[in-house]
Amino acid sequence: MVTTPVSSITFEEYLTYDDGSDFNYELVDGKLELMNPPTIEHFLIAKFLEQLLDTEIKRCSSPWLCFRESGVRTGRNKSRLTDLCVVTVEQARELLNASAVFQSPPLLIVEVVSPESVKRDYRYKRSEYAALEVSEYWIVDPLEAKISVLLLEEGFYEETVFTATQEIGSRTFPELAIAVDRVFATGNLN
Predict the structure, then answer these.
(1) DSSP string covering the chain
(2) Would you give per-residue pLDDT tens digits along the chain (190 residues)?
């Protein structure tokens, strides 16, 4: 992760920031942090989960939407890019013609761990999403072949780890039935 030459930037400036490149940045304490491009494995897992959640949203006729790589404001001068987030249609409507950075907590956030994002996904985003009161946060870790589902309880996350053939348990999607190894199999091109 590389910090750009911009010395300090506000959240409002971040919403309109354009350096002429196609790079993605997170805003961390007023500093832009360049996000490395994900691996193909990362893209395949995120795409599979997005399709899975979209199917479940449609099946349940829930007034929700699932977005890939949208932003979430996690502090005064902080904004994180999510791999996936599920929001209400109303939340999306508020940003219809604005930068896709949600300022109210999504229903669910999913992060797929990469070698350079371990500390960010397990530590920093975990505490920031809890403070924002995101009720459910999944850490999908192909490096460790596990999926951690964190449910917000009294301001802190209670964590359940799922591995191998265990099916993911979700409060947001209680009828979802998908085994962990099936999720990780989508990241392979075999």
Answers:
(1) -EE-S-----HHHHHH---SS--EEEEETTEEEEEPPPPHHHHHHHHHHHHHHHHHHHHTT-SEEEEES-EEEEETTEEEE-SEEEEEHHHHHHTTTS-SEESS--SEEEEE--GGGHHIIIIIHHHHHHHHT-SEEEEEETTTTEEEEEEEETTEEEEEEEETTPBPP-SSSTT---BHHHHHHTT---
(2) 444 456 789 999 999 998 888 889 999 999 999 998 889 999 999 999 999 999 999 999 999 999 999 999 999 999 999 999 999 999 999 999 999 999 999 999 999 999 999 999 999 999 999 999 999 999 999 999 999 999 999 999 999 999 999 999 999 999 999 999 999 999 988 7
